[in-house]
Amino acid sequence: MLQVLVAWAIVALLVVVFRPMNVRAVGTGVNLDQWATIDAAWQNGDLNGNNSAYPEGGVVPFRLAIEGLNTGSHTIHINYDFTAGGHKAYDFLASWNAWRSPPLCGTGGGGRSSMCPGLPGSSSHAFPADPYVANGLSVTGAEVWSGMSRRLTIWGGTITSISGPVHGGSVNANSTADYVVHFTSTGSAVLLAWGGHLAQSGYWDRAAGGARDGASTVSGAPWHMRTLNLDNAGARNQDRSIQRSAIVGELAVNVPATPTPRPTAPQAPGPTPTRAPGTTNPPNSPATPRPFFSPPPTSTLGRDIADGDAPDLRLFVLLSAVGGIAAWRGIVARRGRGAPRN
Fold first, then answer.
1. If 250 and its partner were Cys, which of 7, 56, 266, 320 is the partner (CB 3.0–4.6 Å)?
2. 312 by DSSP, 3-state: which?
3. Rounded-to-integer distance, Cα 200 and Cα 88, Å
4. How many CB atoms lie within 10 A of CB 273?
């Protein structure tokens, strides 16, 4: 009888310890996170001065976890506020790690992919250049001026094409830009990552002789990054916002290099340098390095047990339980042998 009880105890432990830890709900799920620099964690909520410090010209990383897909072709819209209250907000999309490189399988938010912690190989696709002109300056000029990488990255699939962006609304009020992403999934899960570039006053609109009009000039309501219409299913939309209080400072303005002193010997006059459209440096002069903005010290997060650590923990619990049962059996057996016989 004792052996039967021990066997049942071991079976029960196996069921409890090795049961599935994460069971995905039936249906397709979409979850968008953005990176909070001060908290050093992914956020499902908005970014503000309490959890983040971004400069104008910085890039806010985003990750989008899509679960429950059928293998094959899909589409999704990435939509963002180009202006908010008449001021430039997110002026273009960039690579997720163009300015900071947060851990894509990190804690926080709700967009941690089921493929974590061991993400498969990735591929990427360039965002099309944006020729849109606002207040006499082109977005293409801002893209070139920033020097930021501009690619959409995918894990668990392949991006086949990106179309857009299509702009809507007045730049003197609230306006948006919208890309349509076509991709194929190789399984049920896909992770997409990109960045939102915070418009920089050094370009908007000072490059055209105007006043500062970067992201730090937005007042009132926050501006947003959205994903819309996964496979034309509007119910799976996501929306994340950033407040003006999260903007601190500006990346160093890209100024022309210091002119070389004129030589004493006469020389034949050369052509006068001209500025390329949308830039601030003469074409043949080296760009001044743009130092990174240093945000305030980030908090230290406690270490969570990662998915990869779970089997070791389970094995330890199982072995401890089996050892305890074996020790108990030995005690019972010794007591049985030492009991007086009738």
1. 56
2. helix
3. 8
4. 12
* Tens-digit pLDDT profile for residues 111-131: 999 999 999 999 999 999 999
Query: How far is Cα 216 from Cα 94, in angstroms, rounded to an integer?
Result: 19
Contact assessment for residue 71 and residue 187, using Cβ atoms and an 8 Å cutoff: yes
280-298 residue pLDDT tens = 333 333 333 344 333 333 3
pLDDT of residue 309: 37
Residue bearing tokens 């089996």: 322
CB 177 within 8 A of CB 165: yes
Q: Under a CB-based contact definition with an 8 Å cutoff, are residues 129 and 142 in contact? A: no
Structure tokens at 273: 């340098």
The helix (H) or strand (E) run that includes residue 337 is helix 310-338
* 3-state SS assignment for residue 91: strand
Q: Are strands 137-138 and 175-185 parallel, antiparallel or unpaired?
A: unpaired
> Of the candidates 290, 61, 43, 31, which has an alpha carbon nearest to the alpha carbon of residue 198?
61
Q: Which residue's structure tokens are 């990869």?
A: 308
Q: Report residue 22 as tokens.
A: 């994460």
CA distance 28 to 252: 43
Q: Are 63 and 225 in contact (CB under 8 A)?
A: no
Q: Give every CB contact of residue 216 below 8 A, 6+ residues apart in sequence.
A: 56, 201, 244, 247, 250
Distance in angstroms (rounded) separating the CA atoms of residues 88 and 69: 35
At residue 250, does pLDDT exceed 90?
A: yes
pTM for the full predicted model: 0.68
DSSP-assigned states of every residue in 135-153: TTEEHHHHHHHHT---EEE
**Count of beta carbons in the 10 Å neighbourhood of residue 34:** 25
The mean per-residue pLDDT over the stretch 92-116 comes to 95
What counts of helices (H) and strands (E) characterise the chain?
3, 17
User: Nearest 5°: phi and psi at 149?
Assistant: -65, 145
